[in-house]
């Protein structure tokens, strides 16, 4: 029988590392820990090996198209595709970071939204029947939508939103951030929050697009891991990374023909209404 494959982006540390740990214990197949930095990735694999777990490693920088293409080719040639994709990799500037808001908006959207989209464009066509795709979003995304001008937030929430429209909206946010007019035109003052609004809306768009896909029972879902003690949260989060990994791993491991999940967002394994 063909090997089953799970891939977790940005998994050399934090929640992604804990998702790999959880999947190594429960997923019936090979689990790929991926990292933009090969050394950090291989060190993380060694750490899990010390726990008696055996993840595999592949380099992946979600902001580098060549790196995405390399992983795509590798998975296609070696396994004919993959079964689980967890889009976990992301960045967040610290409050005291000296970078201008313009720079933060451009770099954050490029990584968290566009990078995730580019990985999806490369790997969703390779997802096998009964495959599961989990996009790490955040409660900060919901807060950002709530703080947005109503007519703008309606666009992100629209059930008929297209991928192209979503990309344009985030481009509009970055252009406005560079001009210093983003709050004037109704966007919230958070680059990270906007990137996660993008991920939440993208999940809905992708799920709708899957309706016309001949492959059986592929689910694509978003989730919030909660407030987790990682480098990203400056270790202010109340959950451990293993606790933060519970919902993403649960979604990644959903059994065949699970109902009520397609295109939805989850927190603590429960439906999280953001629209
Ligand atoms: N922590 C929280 O409270 C919280 C709350 C809500 C949602 N989330 C979401 O949960 C996910 C994981 O967050 P975390 O707290 O575990 O963050 P983290 O500790 O900062 O880890 C982020 C991971 O993403 C990787 N990464 C960053 N840019 C990348 C790129 N271009 N290509 C590939 N990998 C990249 C990092 O690699 P390097 O080591 O090379 O930097 C690292 O492995 C994120 O999507 C985050 O937005 C977190």
UniProtKB/TrEMBL annotation:
<protein>
    <recommendedName>
        <fullName>carbonyl reductase (NADPH)</fullName>
        <ecNumber>1.1.1.184</ecNumber>
    </recommendedName>
</protein>
<comment type="similarity">
    <text>Belongs to the short-chain dehydrogenases/reductases (SDR) family.</text>
</comment>
<dbReference type="Pfam" id="PF00106">
    <property type="entry name" value="adh_short"/>
</dbReference>
<dbReference type="InterPro" id="IPR036291">
    <property type="entry name" value="NAD(P)-bd_dom_sf"/>
</dbReference>
<keyword id="KW-0521">NADP</keyword>
<dbReference type="InterPro" id="IPR020904">
    <property type="entry name" value="Sc_DH/Rdtase_CS"/>
</dbReference>
<keyword id="KW-0560">Oxidoreductase</keyword>
<dbReference type="InterPro" id="IPR045313">
    <property type="entry name" value="CBR1-like"/>
</dbReference>
<dbReference type="InterPro" id="IPR002347">
    <property type="entry name" value="SDR_fam"/>
</dbReference>
């Amino acid at each position: 029988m063909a090997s089953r494959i799970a891939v977790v982006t940005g998994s050399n540390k934090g929640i992604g590392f804990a998702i790999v740990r959880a999947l190594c214990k429960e997923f019936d197949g090979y689990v790929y820990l991926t990292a933009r930095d090969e050394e950090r990735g291989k060190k993380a694999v060694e750490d899990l090996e010390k726990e008696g777990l055996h993840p595999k490693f592949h380099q992946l920088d979600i902001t580098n198209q060549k790196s995405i293409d390399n992983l795509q080719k590798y998975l296609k040639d070696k396994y004919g595709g993959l079964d689980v994709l967890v889009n976990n990799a992301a960045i967040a500037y610290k409050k005291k970071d000296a970078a201008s808001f313009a720079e933060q908006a451009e770099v954050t959207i490029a990584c968290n939204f566009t990078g995730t989209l580019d990985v999806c464009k490369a790997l969703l066509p390779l997802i096998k029947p009964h495959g599961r795709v989990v996009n790490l979003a955040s409660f900060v995304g919901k807060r950002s939508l709530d703080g947005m001008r109503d007519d703008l937030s309606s666009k992100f929430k629209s059930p008929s939103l297209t991928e192209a429209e979503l990309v344009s909206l985030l481009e509009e946010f970055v252009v406005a951030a560079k001009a210093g007019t983003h709050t004037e035109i109704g966007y919230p003052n958070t680059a990270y929050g906007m990137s996660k609004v993008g991920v939440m809306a993208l999940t809905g768009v992708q799920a709708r697009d899957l309706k016309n896909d001949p492959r059986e029972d592929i689910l694509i879902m978003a989730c919030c891991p909660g407030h987790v003690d990682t480098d990203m949260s400056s270790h202010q989060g109340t959950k451990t990374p293993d606790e933060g990994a519970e919902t993403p791993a649960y979604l990644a491991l959903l059994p065949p023909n699970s109902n009520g999940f397609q295109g939805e967002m989850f927190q603590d394994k429960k439906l999280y209404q953001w629209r």
